[in-house]
Amino acid sequence: MTSEALETPAARRLYGQGPIFAVAPMIDWTDRHCRFFHRLLSADALLYTEMVVADAILHGDRERLLGFDAAEQPVALQIGGSDPGKLAEAARIGAGFGYREINLNVGCPSDRVQSGAFGACLMREPELVGRCLAAMREAVDVPVTVKCRIGVDEQDPEPALDALADCSVDAGVSAIWVHARKAWLQGLSPKENRDIPPLDYERVFRLKQRLPSMFVGLNGGLATVADAASHLGRVDGVMMGRGIYADPAGLAEVGPFVHGRAREAIDYPAVLGSMVDYSGRHVARGGRLGQVTRHMLGLFTGLPGARRWRQVLSEGAPRADARPELILEAFAEVELPTGQSAAA
Prior knowledge:
- This protein is of the alpha/beta class and 344 residues long.
- The chain is built from 15 helices and 8 strands.
- The protein has an 8-stranded parallel barrel with strand order 1-2-3-4-5-6-7-8, surrounded by 5 helices.
């Protein structure tokens, strides 16, 4: 169970209190180790869990599925499902763990969610989405939000997204996050659905124009924080996934670009010292070092020694006897910018 949340700048800035930069929910990527690492790089980002299926929350190991470190806050829990009663109970459980927001997944195109008739499939059933969101909203006091696509398969994105949004607004959601691509459930793999359907940011901008009082956030294809922030003003928030995962040092730009705060250089020794301590606790509980360090491989993208950093961690961390000090050994291979030291 999480302990009392820390009051980071982002924790005090949720919906209705300024623009939001969020790290997207990504299955197999944005686990608790990833989020702890990302929080060290930015106090300003809203972090999301991986999608957790409502049935798993109701019947599975809740501490394993939902537990997190207080230092990660603010964290939003994304839930998958299509049964209003189950989603309401799962949301209630999630709020009890301390999550600051509960989000319904209406965008994932994987075979798993298609077989369960949720995720992106729900774009075809906006009234059901509305009932699900209303039940979740009734169950918790934290914001309930939805993340969707602009449509699926042969749907026309104009009426499809409007119908989904209208039912969501009627249900009382605090935000609508839109991945600005269709999901093709027939003919494309989940991986292909992240790249092949064309981006249509203008469709999301039109939604915001139509719903000026509703928080509308943009997701999909945003390569850098500067790129993402350039859309603020036409939408209320921006969400990055793979781009920030591959180059997590970009999180240091969230404060300057999104919130107008002064840019501060990353204190790499402090960040990695914290990760050594965190990894030590994880290993002491029976975990593997590689479960933590796999999220850190892109930290030094573009710097001399980045390849060697990745090599040391990729080869050493999966070993059963790998110790957290390996992080510092890998760090010693990196040549930091002038004025920064690699001594931890």
